[in-house]
Request: fold
Amino acid sequence: MPKPFHPLESVKRLRSRGHLGGVIPQHRAISSLHFPQQRLWSGLALAVGLTALLLLLRPWLAQLWGTEIVWWMRALELPGHFNTQYRGGDGLLALAVPFIDVQLKAPDGWVPVWHGVAVLGVWWATGHMSDAAKPVAYLLRFAALVHGAAVLFFIFWPASFPHSVDQHVGSGLRQAWHLMLLAPWIHLATYYLFPFAFWQRCLLSLLTWVFLLAFTPLQYALHVALVHSMGLVVMPLLHLLFGVMLDIIGFVALYGWAMGWQTPDAAHVPA
Reply:
C-alpha cells in the first residue's frame, strides 16, 4: 500500500538535495559545531547595556553634532540661519537636530543643463574603461542614472522639489543615530555569537559608534556646502549614494576588520 503524500516531508527532502538531484551531506564542521547558550545570553545583555548607554548619552550626542555642524557653517562663511535650537527629540528613540537654513544662490536655468552634459560625459567615459575597472564603471553609471533623473526633474519641474537643506541634514543625522542604535543588535546576530572575547565584542560596537560619531557631522556639513555651491539638483545624489550608504559601508568595513581579529582558545573564551 503506497504511503500517504505529505507536502512538508517532500519539501524537507528537497532541501537536502543539490541541483543535480544528489543528496548534500551536512559538513562535518557544522555537525560538530558547539554553541554555548551562555554566549547568547551574554551577547544579549551586552546589546541591551550598550543601547541603554547610548540612550543616556543621546542629549550629549545631539548637542555635539549640532554644535559642530553650526561651527562648520560659520567657518565656511555660508549665508543663512544656523542655530542649535534642537527640534524633534520628543520620542523614545528620537534625536533632536539643529536648524540649518542655508541661503542658496539665485536659480539659474542653465545649471541643470550643465549637469546633464556632465552626466552624459561620465556615461560616455565609463564605456571606455578597461575590464579591470568595470566595478568602478558600474558604480559611476549608477550615479549617473541617479543624477540624470534629478537633472530631468529640475529641468521640467524645478519648483516642485519638496525637500530643503534643513530636512536633508535632519533626516541624515537621524538615520546615522538609528544606525548607532541598531549597531549592537546587528552585531549580536553577526558577531557576538562567534567565539570572540567579551572585550572584543564590546570594542567592535564602540569603534562603530566612534566612527559614526566623528564622521556624520563632517559628512553633512560637506553636503550643505555642496548644495550651496551646486544647487538643489545634487541633493538626490548626495542622499542616495553619499548619505547613510557611506555610514553603512564604514559599518561593514569595521565588521570585516573585526572578523579578522585573533580569537582566544575556545576553552578560555569568556561567555
